[in-house]
Design brief:
It contains 13 helices and no strands. It is globular, with a radius of gyration of 19 Å. Helix 6 runs antiparallel to helix 13. By secondary structure, it is an all-alpha fold.
């Protein structure tokens, strides 16, 4: 739970991949819930669970207050970006098919690579570009769009991807000085406050299953956020961007387990390309790490 930033891309990739697996489960639960409840209500309970858990642990381990951080303004901006991404994505899902939605939203890792160059001044090598573009090509094959999506919902989804990409860059920036738990409870508390403002008009008392799903959503999101934030502490944003595509594979797994959805041939082909791109990235980073170690050792 240190607030120092270590460079170990393979550890970062492993942690981020676990985080995206949790986020895929989170999306499956949200898909279940949006049929009966409004997105702000779902986000409120989810964020409240995260804030309570992360806040308690941050206090227990005596993590420094975010109010003393030089990045406190950045944390607020990132929270607003993430909240905007959530609201736009799940509302556009009401109007777009899964193929269009997935294809448009998964432009985010490409945007992360560009922003990591512009904002974080990271050096993005050929390996990361190949993995990122290969993963996006896999998404295109898996999604297999058959017609042009509606303009406004499509635009909302693209903006959601941009907001998520920008917030991802800010995670890496803030992680240079702030602990993971501090970031989690602060962001989630801001989420809960923002969503609470709409509850007088949107609240619908959940039944037993609804409460179980919403609380479970918060628990899964807590684990996912912790793994992802820790991943960005260990690896550059451009190295982790392609691992986001692995979330699509988990989405297929959850879809079959919950709704017995059987992916088509194009989905399997796209998934194979996504996995290959991710494995390529792991091998590339491993070789780059060994090369850097050899160069740093005295002859």
């Amino acid at each position: 739970m240190s607030n120092t930033t270590n460079t170990n891309p393979l550890v970062g990739i492993a942690l981020a991949s676990g985080g995206y697996a949790c986020f895929a489960a989170q999306d499956a639960i949200v898909k279940w819930l949006v049929a009966d409840y409004e997105v702000p209500q779902i986000l409120f309970i989810r964020s409240l669970v995260i804030a309570l858990i992360a806040g308690f642990l941050a206090q227990y381990y005596r993590h420094p207050s975010i109010m003393k951080s030089q990045y406190r303004g950045t944390v607020v901006v990132r929270a607003m970006l993430m909240l905007t991404a959530w609201l736009l994505f799940y509302n556009s899902a009401r109007h777009l098919g899964l193929a269009e939605l997935t294809t448009l939203y998964f432009s985010a890792p490409i945007i992360v690579v560009f922003l990591s160059i512009l904002i974080l001044k990271e050096k993005v090598g050929a390996g990361r570009w190949i993995a990122c573009l290969g993963g996006f090509a896999g998404v295109l094959i898996a999604a297999n769009p058959t017609h042009s999506p509606s303009l406004i919902p499509a635009a909302l989804c693209v903006v959601a991807g941009f907001c998520w990409a920008w917030s991802t860059i800010l995670i890496r920036l803030v992680s240079r000085t702030e602990t993971t738990l501090t970031q989690m409870w602060t962001t989630s508390l801001l989420f809960a406050i923002a969503c609470a403002l709409s509850l007088p008009w949107l609240w619908k008392t959940p039944n037993l299953m609804g409460w179980a799903l919403m609380i479970g959503l918060g628990l899964i999101a807590t684990v996912g956020q912790y793994l992802l934030y820790e991943g960005f502490r260990h690896a550059p944003a451009s190295a982790l961007a392609p691992t986001e595509y692995t979330g699509l594979i988990w989405a297929f797994v959850y879809g079959y387990a919950i709704w017995t959805e059987i992916p088509s041939t194009s989905v399997f082909a796209g998934a194979l390309l996504i996995v290959s791109s991710s494995l390529f990235l792991v091998v590339w980073e491993s070789r780059a790490g060994k090369s850097a170690t050899k160069q740093s050792c005295p002859s």
